[in-house]
Design goal:
The chain is of the alpha/beta class. The strands form two sheets. Strands 1, 2, 3, 6, 7 and 8 form a six-stranded parallel β-sheet that branches. It has a two-stranded parallel ribbon with strand order 4-5. Helix 2 packs parallel to helix 7. The longest helix has 31 residues. The chain is globular.
Length: 298
């Protein structure tokens, strides 16, 4: 065998061994991250921005179906003076008393990036203090306001006792589409969990189904809603009847619907992937390939 052939064979062997080693490392992290087998049809339900409809409309529907949920509270916008569109702290306390989770969405709905990172501690305090005044435990989950995020905030979130943090469907999908991927424990960072679906006014039942059908083979579908309806932010509003139909579908189809904090039952938030960006890049490539295939079929 020629030297060049031997060299080529050696490179191929190294490549294969490297790929197998990387795959083994990924599988090891995934196995460590999972505390118990994740059932198919596991959905996490989340609501942002302290909409008044969370208490008057969403709450009774969730109680009827026995669903868990996380309500991410902010005092941003004109929350302090506008009680036509936003919750009162007494209503937030009632949500807690009903067994729903109260999560942190920052005091001022501040998008977190490298320029605003220095404000994050105070922003978290604003909601934690409001919770404490109502006898609500300090939040252990966080939703990135405006779905802006930065890994520079991970250390502080961890210090503040945040176990899980939810983002939107971007960058895998454009923000405006309201689409996303299901959470893959051991591959996604616990402080950067993707939304499988981010409900919008143009959503219909097939959009919900596309999101939650991803909840299989160890993946968990996290849904992001705002108000139902959201009378202050119509671009992210979900109509009451549409919301009722979505929840009815989840119940009829046998989905287990939980709060974000309840992921602790299945996932160890202390286990983080060595490269959380790898799964994001892989998904982006799959979206690009899907777009090319769709275009070629037209």
């Amino acid at each position: 065998m020629r030297m060049t052939e031997l060299l080529g064979l050696g490179i191929a062997v190294i490549f294969i061994l490297g790929a197998r080693l990387a795959l083994g490392e990924d599988e090891g992290i995934v196995s460590r991250a999972i505390r118990q087998p994740i059932p198919d049809k596991l959905v996490v339900l989340t609501f942002d921005d302290s909409s008044r409809s969370h208490h008057g409309i969403v709450r009774p529907i969730l109680k009827e179906y026995g669903f868990g949920a996380t309500f991410f509270i902010t005092e941003g916008f004109d929350f302090p003076i506008n009680k036509d569109d936003y919750l009162t702290w007494a209503q937030i306390r009632e949500l807690h008393d009903d067994g729903f989770e109260i999560g942190n969405h920052t005091r001022n709905h501040l998008g977190i990036n490298h320029r605003t990172l220095s404000c994050l501690d105070d922003e978290l305090d604003g909601i934690a203090e409001g919770c404490a005044a109502q006898g609500i435990p300090a939040p252990v989950t966080f939703a990135w306001p405006g779905n802006a995020n930065t890994e520079e905030a991970f250390a502080l979130l961890h210090q503040r006792g945040i176990l899980f943090a939810r983002r939107g469907g971007a960058p895998e999908y454009p923000y405006d589409e309201g689409r996303g991927f299901a959470y893959e424990p051991g591959k996604d960072h616990p402080l950067l969990l993707p939304s499988a679906g981010d409900a919008r006014p143009k959503w219909t039942l097939p959009d919900l189904i596309r999101a939650v059908e991803q909840a299989r083979d160890g993946r968990i579908a996290i849904l992001q809603f705002h108000g139902a309806p959201d009378t202050a932010h119509d671009w992210v509003s979900t109509g009451e009847q549409s919301f009722r139909s979505y929840m009815k579908y989840l119940k009829i189809e046998g989905y287990r619907v939980i709060a974000l904090r309840d992921l602790q039952e299945y996932v160890d938030p202390a286990v983080t992937p060595e490269d959380y960006k790898a799964v994001i890049e892989s998904r982006k490539k799959s979206v690009e390939a899907e777009a090319v295939e769709t275009t070629s079929e037209k």
